[in-house]
Design brief:
CATH class of the largest domain: Alpha Beta
CATH topology of the largest domain: D-Maltodextrin-Binding Protein, domain 2
Number of helices: 11
Largest sheet: 6 strands, mixed
Shape: globular
Strand content: 15-25%
Structural class: alpha/beta
């Protein structure tokens, strides 16, 4: 019995020491700059909202939050980097549906598990995607675009800078029965540049990247991808309204840390991030980019990630996309 009591006492002491150590870490965190990894290039919608949040987060934490762009391979380069980073709160990840929901089904293999290799911090919100065509394409609506594509089989192409644009383009191809060449890019901005230059016919892209070109007329907007019209471009119909029935793409963003990051640090970051994301000034600043900002608990983001994996697997299968 004495041996058992000594064992229990020792276990309690070890647990107490661990808890006190975790609390001490949270109280002193952070003591150096934090890296916030973005899976797309500078100027993308994800990059823009990350920089808004990083500036505010750095101010409240008292340390610089440095945004690092690691574009390529459907966001998996960035995801693998974060998954293998030290779980100490100094490497964070602004992920999206591309590396977290779609990449497992767009690629034959990835070297991380979206559900197990990351710990959730908070939702950030949702993107609306915009369908843009080069003005040389004689189409003023989705139906006219489809008719033009059918009259010119194999002559149109669509660019993509992320999984949302891949899926939207392939879904339109399959639904309309048209032949278009897919031209992939590492991020949305270079994809937009090639559509502007007429090297590619069209693309789906986030509002932050595409809206200025629609507004100026350098590219022609035809539709948006969610069931409800965007307040930023209320003149444009949705794909559902345009005949692609029930098309509803919710492109999302959320913040994560490597699995194993101390719970006290996760709790601190969640508290600060929710204050930032739900701040009316920040919401308005982010809304100007065509992004709807809202936060969540860590548990809510965990459940959302699981549900989105199921949803994107189904959408990718329905679009007839084969993993590469």
């Amino acid at each position: 019995m004495n041996h058992l009591l000594r064992f229990v006492a020792a276990a309690i002491a070890v647990l107490s020491l661990a808890l006190s150590g975790t609390a001490a870490i949270a109280q002193t965190y952070p003591t150096k700059p934090i890296s916030l990894i973005v899976p797309f290039g500078p100027g993308s919608g994800t990059d823009l909202i990350t920089r808004i949040i990083a500036q505010r987060l750095g101010a409240v934490l008292g340390q610089s939050v440095i945004v690092e762009n690691k574009a390529g391979a459907n966001g998996t380069i960035a995801a693998m980097f974060v998954a293998r980073a030290a779980p100490d709160g100094y490497t964070l990840f602004m992920s999206t549906n591309t590396p977290h929901s779609a990449a497992p089904f767009l690629m034959k293999s990835i070297n991380y598990d979206p559900a197990k290799d990351f710990v959730a911090l908070s939702r950030v919100g949702s993107f609306t995607q915009l369908l843009l065509v080069n003005p040389s394409i004689p189409a003023k609506s989705v139906q006219e675009l489809i008719a033009h594509a059918k009259a010119n089989p194999g002559k149109l192409s669509f660019a993509s800078g992320n999984a949302s644009s891949v899926l939207a383009g392939e879904t339109l191809k399959r639904w309309a029965g048209i032949d278009m060449l897919h031209v992939p890019y590492r991020s949305a901005p270079p994809a937009v540049q090639d559509v502007l230059g007429g090297r590619v016919s069209m693309l789906f892209t986030d509002m932050a990247t595409g809206w200025p070109h629609h507004r100026s007329g350098t590219l022609r907007g035809l539709a948006t991808t969610r069931l409800k019209r965007s307040a930023l471009v209320p003149e444009l119909p949705t794909l559902d309204e345009s005949g692609v029935k029930d098309f509803d793409m919710d492109s999302w963003a959320g913040l994560f840390a490597p699995a194993g990051t101390p719970p006290a640090i996760i709790a601190r970051l969640n508290t600060e991030l929710r204050k930032i994301i739900d701040n009316p000034e920040v919401k308005a600043q982010i809304a100007a980019t065509g992004f709807e900002a809202f936060s969540s608990t860590t548990a809510e983001l965990d459940e959302f990630v699981k549900a989105q994996l199921v949803k994107w697997q189904r959408m990718i299968k329905d679009a007839g996309i084969q993993p590469e």
